[in-house]
Each structure stands twice: as C-alpha cells, then as structure tokens.
Design a protein that fits this description.
The structure holds 2 protein chains of 2 kinds. Chain A is mostly helical. Helices cover about 75% and strands about 0% of the residues of chain A. Chain A has one domain (about 1-245). Chain A has helices at about 1-20, 20-25, 25-40, 45, 55-85, 90, 100-125, 135-160, 165-180, 190-200, 200-215, 220-245; strands at about 50, 50-55. In chain A, a hairpin with a 2-residue loop joins strand 1 and strand 2 (about 50-55). Chain A is globular, with a radius of gyration of 18 Å. The two termini of chain B are about 35 Å apart. The longest helix of chain B is centred in the middle third of the chain and has 16 residues, at about 170-185. Chain B is α/β, with parallel strands linked by helices. Chain B contains 10 helices and 14 strands. Classes of the chains: A mainly alpha, B alpha/beta. The interface between A and B is medium-sized, with 27 and 37 residues.
Chain lengths: ~250, ~300
C-alpha cells in the first residue's frame, strides 16, 4: 500500500512540476501583483487593519488564497483528466485500495498547494519585511486547508463530465467565497448583519486562523477554526470515499 | 487441468437498461490460449471489464485461480494483466514512467520494476523511446506499450482486447510470436479479436458471444471440424479452357481463376487430379473465406 501511495504522490508531483509554467509560476506573478497594487499602492491610503498596516494584513489571505486555488485545481484537473483519457483504469485494474487512491490525489493537491504557497511566500519576502508569529499554527492551518480543498476538487472531478464542469465551481463558488471570506478586509468593518453572514463562510475561519499564525491577531477563536476545518474535512472525505468506492461516474 | 477463470451466471445490465451480458458461463483452463469472439456489441469488452474490475456486474460470480472476485478482489487483480482495446494511458507521461507507475500500483518498487520494464520495452522495440511522451508514439507503438504495461507485474493471466488492431503485419506477427512464447511459459491468455485468422492460428479453445450470450464454447479443432464445406479460389497462370468438364461445381471468376466448394467426400487431391485431366494447371489455391469467419457468421446468425 505504501508503494502504491508513494507512486501516486510522485506521479502527481511530477505532473504539476512538468508544467510549472502553468501551475507554479502564474500564481506567484498574480499574488505579487496583488501585493503591489492592493498592499503597496492602495494600502497606504487604507491605513491599518487589525492593528497592522494593510500590506501586512493581506499577506496571509493572499497566500492562503493561492493554497486553496492550487490544491483544488490540482486534484480537480488531475482526476478529471485521468477520467477523460481513461488512465484512471490503470488504478482501477490494480489492487490499490480506494483510501490509497484518495490519499494519493489529496497528497498531490497538498504538495502543489505547498509548492505554490512557498513560492508566493518567497516572492512576498522579497518585497516585504515580515516574520511569522507562530509557525505551528500557520502550518497546521495551511495543511488542513489544503487537504479540505483537495478533497473538494476531487469531488468536483468525480461529478465533472466536461472541462466546463471543472471551472464552474472555482469561478462561481470558490472565488466569491475566498474574496468574501475576509481575505482583503477584517469583518469588523462590516455592518453587523454581514459580519454574522460572513461567519457562515468556512473560508473566513481559515483566513482568520492563518492570519493568527502570521500576525498573532484574529477575529475568531483558533479552536473554532480548527474544528470547522476538521469537520468539513471529515464530511468531504466520507463523501469522496463513497463516490470512489461506488465508482460513481468512474465505473459503469 | 486447473481452472484459471470461471464465470458463472454473469449478468450485466447498464443504467440505460441495456442487457449486455445475459447469464453467461465460461471456463478457461490454466495455460490455455483462449479466444473470446463476438461481433461488436456482443458483450466481450463488458465481460473483460467486469473480470478486471473496470465495470460493476449486475449479478453472477467470477473466480480467478480459485480466488473469488467479490471476496478476494486484490488477489484477483494481482493475477490479471489487461491490455484494453482503447488507449488508456496518460499521453503526457513518458513511457517508462507509465510502466513504473503501473508496477507501483501493484506494490512493486521502482528499483524492482526497472529491470523488468527494460526487458519489456526492449522486447516491444520501445526502449529507445522510453523518455518520450506516450502521445508521440504511433498507434502500433501505443498498443505495444499497453502490452508491456499489462505484463509489468508478471500476471498469471493475460487478457488482450483487440491487441493487434491497427498494428502493421510485421509487428503483428512478432507480437503473435511473443504471445505464443508467453503461453508456452505457462501464462493463460484470453484474447478477443476481430482478426479471426489470429484466433484460429493462436488459440486452442474458443467461446463465441452473441448478444450477451455464449453461443459456443469448445476447442478450436472441434469447432473447425464442424465446417461441412469450404470455398476455395483456384488460380492458373494460363488462360482457362472454355469448357471444364468435372463432376463438382465450379464458378468461373475470370479467365485465370475459378471458385470451388469442397464438401465431404471431396478432397483437394481429387480435385487437382480431375482438373489436371482437363488440362487445367493450378498455380495458387486460397480460401475464399476464413474458415472460422464462416463458422462465426453461421453461429451468430449473420451469414
């Protein structure tokens, strides 16, 4: 089982590394531009947020956004393509358990999230002088978030029947949730109704906890954020495993 | 002879209510070279898909070398190597990677599978292309890659679904020779093909599927012995006489060739003697239709 798991993970890492111009490089450029425009040029006019200057405030959210998008993109694209070109059959005919297949794809998503997150972090460090307040919290939230969105990408890939289907969720659901999850602002500045509504957005908890790891300050309780993440991971893992075991949209 | 594959009452009804397999029973002995024939839509690929775990069955039982597919799924999968009909590898992966990954899925480490991958790629004349992306290979090369991949974990049973479709004659014959060697080494081979001469020359036993049912399962020799007549085309280098007086039916095709139908009691020696007596010298004899093809069409009611 270990060899099979390792094989899937290596295959996934090689897949996105081979096309690094499409997978690793663009998020680094995009986020550097975000920082330059929103943090550097507009940040001074916005002033301070959550007791730090705006540039430092948005860095954790921007890094986590790339982690979310890339972890999701990796599993959704890789698993859908495996279905599309039928190479998923290589796994189906072999004695690999469903858990190992799922774990392998999720690990691939986490690996890409980590690679891109690290790349963005390095790019940000080049422009901005900052330190991570608590590396343990930062890494834990990164890991749980990457796992969660890799699972979400996997489920999307299972249901996807066309290339359109793998871009609908990231564009129309994921991106608005990220932007409205407090990536660019603290929910303190919102009217009370919108503050309460924001708390139904799971990404708010992730961004907030990640910001706690980076800056040492947050709006919500860390244990609540971790609980939300763990609960969602559990639910999505059970759903993904069920879909894989039943062979839905994979086996006729 | 121990049983390699035993299929009992296998049914498959797809979601669109298409009944692809209607309670089929099939038995393949260990070490056999077995042909599974049928026209398009007969259920061959469905049966193979279920045996290999690519499709869910509706009901029935499959045993592979004594292992129950439902209860000992992983043991069954380890024993089978599949070369499917459609290309089913990632075209953007280097071909050696495809083999090493497949071995990895079977729990074989890269260090252990590398020598075997080298042997197989050399055998398939793909070694020089091992670092190339699979998409750059020709159709025939892709088929050979799938054969190498099916063998990378050294299975006991090899299932080949249309292995030589789109492969040129030279490579086809070298593949046949290789498959025969594997079979002589003890590997059970199950083959589906549209080239009936391929089945006739390679396989010892045969099953014919038609509309989801097994209409015949016997040895190749017994099946061919059922042919009561055979149509031959005889060709002469000289122009044929205007009148050929023989006591069997002939059908003139052109000024150099004609067709005869061999029935019981009439053998080729007798035919040649009678034709020679008429001054007809035959240079070439060929079968009008493949013998198995004739039988196949009769059994499937498509003749």
């Amino acid at each position: 089982m270990w060899i099979a798991y390792k094989t899937i993970v290596i295959k996934e890492i090689l897949r996105f590394s081979r096309i690094w111009v499409q997978t690793i490089f663009p998020p680094i450029i995009t986020t550097s531009l975000y920082l330059l425009i929103f943090g550097g040029l507009m940040g001074e006019r916005i002033g301070r947020m959550q007791e730090v200057d705006y540039l430092h405030f948005i860095i954790p959210g921007i890094i986590l956004m790339t982690v979310i998008q890339n972890a999701y993109a990796n599993t959704v694209a890789s698993f859908f393509l495996a279905k599309f070109n039928h190479s998923i059959e290589e796994l189906l005919v072999s004695p690999v358990s469903h858990w190992v297949i799922l774990l392998g794809y999720i690990s691939g998503g986490v690996a890409r999230g980590f690679a891109v997150g690290l790349g963005v972090f390095a790019a940000v460090s080049f422009f901005v002088d900052f330190t991570i307040n608590n590396i343990f919290i930062t890494f834990t939230i990164f890991l749980l978030t990457a796992i969660l969105f890799s699972l979400a990408g996997f489920i999307n890939a299972v249901f996807a029947k066309s290339f359109d289907d793998i871009s609908i969720v990231p564009t129309f659901i994921l991106l608005p949730m990220i932007y409205l999850g407090g990536m660019f602002y603290s929910i303190d500045i919102l009217p009370e109704f919108w503050q309460e509504l924001s708390k139904f957005n799971p990404i708010y908890y992730m961004v907030d906890a990640f910001r706690l790891g980076f800056l040492g300050s947050s709006n919500s309780d860390l244990s609540t954020s971790i609980l939300v993440l763990l609960l969602m991971i559990f639910i999505l893992a059970v759903v993904a495993f069920y879909l894989l075991k039943r062979g839905i949209n994979i086996k006729a | 002879m121990p049983i390699a594959l035993k299929i009992s009452k296998l049914c498959k009804i797809y979601d669109n209510k298409l009944s692809a397999l209607k309670s089929i029973d099939l038995q393949v002995s260990q070490g056999d070279f077995f042909a599974l024939l049928g026209s398009n839509g007969a259920g061959k690929t469905t049966a193979i898909g279920i045996i290999c775990g690519l499709l869910n069955k509706t009901s029935g039982r499959i045993e592979v070398l004594g292992f129950d597919q439902d209860l000992q799924t992983n043991q069954v999968k380890k024993l089978i190597g599949l070369m499917p009909q459609e290309f089913n590898f990632n075209p953007f992966e280097p071909i050696e990677e495809i083999l090493l990954n497949q071995a990895g899925y079977y729990g074989i480490s890269r260090s252990k599978s590398k020598p075997n991958a080298e042997i197989l790629l050399k055998k398939m004349q793909l070694w020089s292309k091992r670092f190339d992306m699979a998409k750059s290979l020709s159709g025939g090369m892709k088929r050979r890659l799938m054969l190498a991949r099916a063998l990378i974990h050294q299975p006991k049973i090899l299932i080949l679904d249309e292995p030589t479709a789109g492969v040129d004659v030279e490579i086809r014959h070298s593949m046949w020779a290789y498959l025969q060697t594997l079979n002589q080494q003890g590997m059970t081979i199950i083959l589906t093909t549209h080239y009936l001469e391929e089945a006739e020359s390679l396989c010892r036993n045969i099953a014919i599927l038609n509309e989801g049912k097994v209409v015949e399962q016997t040895s190749m020799n017994k099946l061919l012995a059922k042919i009561s007549q055979q149509t031959l085309i005889l060709e002469s280098l000289e122009v044929l006489p205007k009148q050929i007086n023989v006591d069997f039916g002939i059908k003139i095709l052109d000024e150099n060739s004609f067709e005869i139908t061999l029935e019981s009691g009439l053998n080729l020696n007798l035919v040649m003697e009678k034709l020679s007596a008429q001054g007809v010298n035959i240079s070439y004899v060929r079968s009008s239709k493949n013998r198995l093809e004739t039988l196949f069409l009769n059994l499937t009611g498509k003749n």
